[in-house]
Amino acid sequence: MSMSAMSEKEFELKRQGKITRLTNRTFKFDPRVKSGWFSAVYFLKTAEIIKQKRPKQRVTMQFFQKKEAILCGIDEAIALLHSFATNPGELKICALHDGDKISPFETVLTIEGYYEDFGYLEGIIDGVLARRTSVATHVYNVVQAAGDKQVIFMGDRDDHFSQQAGDGYAAYIGGAAAQATHAMNEWWGKAGVGTMPHALIQLFDGDLIKACEAYVATFPQDNLVALVDYHNDVIADSLKVARHFGDKLYGVRVDTAANMVDQYFLNNRHEFGREDLRGTNVRLIRLLREHLDQAGFPNVKIIVSGGFDADKIRQFQQQNAPVDSYGVGSSLLKVNIGFTGDCVLLNGKAQAKEGRQYNDNPRLSQVEFPLI
């Protein structure tokens, strides 16, 4: 089943609120979902038993989780149902929207229909909602911690590449529109952003100036952001590249490893004892800003990356660290919000395992088929 990315027109209509859901044309699903390849075997056995012994039983399945969170994955789950459920138009689906703030145990999605038509998709829907909501919530928390500073989603190296499109969409829902790969932008119609890795400098024998010159010559339309921690001498290299490129230098990125102490501190031992000087730290960034300003480069922006999460960003913000953008990766991809799907009504009457019951949510809206 081949499905194209969301068109620019669809993206703009959704941004304006003129359409409220993405469609099954947005997502790329493995066609083996239909055969049950990705479903737990007990769901497949249950569907077969019901077909033979108790067909046409109308159930209501509801989904919830247990934290304060930013919901994501709803549109994907609906598209999944539309693509693989039997007779999807006969299902009654009510749902919240991607981007909604949700509470513990709040019902986010209900599906009403014959069990054998959709029941085998329960675990897949749980997984979709769990991953997308976890990423969206982590990104939202980071964006809130960063305030008016830009957050760049750099999660390409922290998980399997096949997850990038969905993770990128979830990051967008969480509030991060600047993302590292084109695939991350696939579902919502934009393009990846980025400048240089350490490998580019290495390929020019460690010569940062030559690497930057090659970058400018090859991508003259881009903003030049120099990666300045290659020699573990952030301030000296930032000043060197700023003096060489002048107004052509847009910014510098600091990505000092957590076990390293920058050369500036090794040359200025009186700095030791004030705070932890390893990695990309507030003191280093403050000194970098001071040196750039004193040298006549107040417009050069500072981007930081390496081990940032909501707590570390919050610490930087509380200390008024002169950061313009935060690059964040691995901390955003931890799946720690699990969803549960339960069948709670049978033919319109309460029937569920002990401790679970139908939990009506007036915030849900019914999904109309066919989708756009």
From TrEMBL:
Pathway named in the protein's UniProt entry: Cofactor biosynthesis; NAD(+) biosynthesis; nicotinate D-ribonucleotide from nicotinate: step 1/1
SUPFAM superfamilies: Nicotinate/Quinolinate PRTase C-terminal domain-like (SSF51690), Nicotinate/Quinolinate PRTase N-terminal domain-like (SSF54675)
A biological process term (GO) from this entry: NAD+ biosynthetic process
Keyword Transferase: yes
Signal peptide: none
Catalyzed chemical reaction(s): 5-phospho-alpha-D-ribose 1-diphosphate + nicotinate + ATP + H2O = nicotinate beta-D-ribonucleotide + ADP + phosphate + diphosphate
EC number: 6.3.4.21
Domain Quinolinate phosphoribosyl transferase N-terminal: from-to ranges: 42-131
InterPro entries xrefs: Aldolase_TIM, NAPRTase-like, Nic_PRibTrfase-Fam, Nicotinate_pribotase-like_C, Quinolinate_PRibosylTase_N_sf, Quinolinate_PRibosylTrfase_N
UniProt keyword annotations, A-Z: Glycosyltransferase, Ligase, Phosphoprotein, Pyridine nucleotide biosynthesis, Transferase
Lipid biosynthesis found in the keyword field: no
Molecular function via GO: nicotinate phosphoribosyltransferase activity; pentosyltransferase activity
NCBIfam families, A to Z: PRK07188.1 (NF005529)
Protein's UniProt name: nicotinate phosphoribosyltransferase
Organism of provenance: Mesocricetibacter intestinalis
